[in-house]
Amino acid sequence: MFETILKVAMVIISVVLIILCLLQSGKSDDIVNALTGQSSNLFAEQKERGVDLVMSRMTMILSIAFFVIAILLRMN
In sequence order, what are the residues at sequence separation of 6 or more whose Cβ sits closer than 8 angstroms to the Cβ of residue 64? Predict the structure, then answer.
């Protein structure tokens, strides 16, 4: 029973992590701007705010939960 709950949680967390990774804003624009010589803030210190901050923290928490559940499933 416990193993089934962990497997279901693992699938749900996996799907949510994939969705969160797809929704997060990419940093590739900064790299392209730096290579082409356009004005860029590549080395400017920018803090995450609002939705970006929430999504970043959710990704971190869910990834930790993913690895903990993977370890628990492996030990059983």
Answer: none
pTM: 0.70
Q: What is the CA 32 to chain-centroid distance, rounded?
A: 22
Q: Which residues neighbour 20 within 8 Å (Cβ) at sequence distance 6 or greater?
A: 55, 58, 59, 62
For 47, which DSSP code?
-
Residue 12 CA: distances (Å) to CA of 45, 54, 56, 57, 75: 34, 19, 18, 17, 20
Residue pLDDT, tens place only, 44-58: 566 777 888 889 899
What does the block give as tokens for 25? 């804003």
